[in-house]
Amino acid sequence: MVTDGLATTAKINNVRFQFDEETRLKYLSITLAALVLAMPAALLAHGKEDHNKSKIVTVKKEQKAWGIAGDAKAVKRTIKVGMADNMRFTPNAIEVKQGETVRFVIANNGKIMHEFVIGTKTELDEHAAMMLKFPNMEHDEPYMAHVEPGKSGEIVWMFNRAGDFDFACLIAGHYQAGMVGKIKVVAASMPFGARKS
Fold it and tell me: Which of 47, 70, 120, 180 could form a disulfide with 168 if both were Cys (CB 3.0 to 4.6 A apart)?
């Protein structure tokens, strides 16, 4: 397309078109108006539906040192966990029985994004270091919940191995600020609530 003073010449499929300035502006205005009118229709067609509810989610069941993704039908207990902008979890210590499948309902009571990630101290340390290097890194595992401000997330987890594990927010800076907690998985042979000395 070449503009020469008051005329614009365009070559489309080896055919030359010449427009005066008034005609060019008219076609430009019509094209822009059509685009503007089409946008609301596209936005309305998309709607405000929650895509997560309409998706069929297949959970990857991979054995970890701290357990395996649980089956929602096997949940015997729900544990509510709050996250806040003071970089703390409430509660920050949780005790479960070996073999227990738990539903964690994680509420972000803050004004910034937080996450709840279960793991060993070593795994969380490594992942936190990666998040510092790559803060926009995306990950989606069944032992993680990324929760927007004012929203809630869920994790269903089966603790099939006894031991002491951790949970944390691994968003860059949050882990380093002390946004961590502990999970004690009591061996099946040990009475619930009993602690080793």
Answer: 180
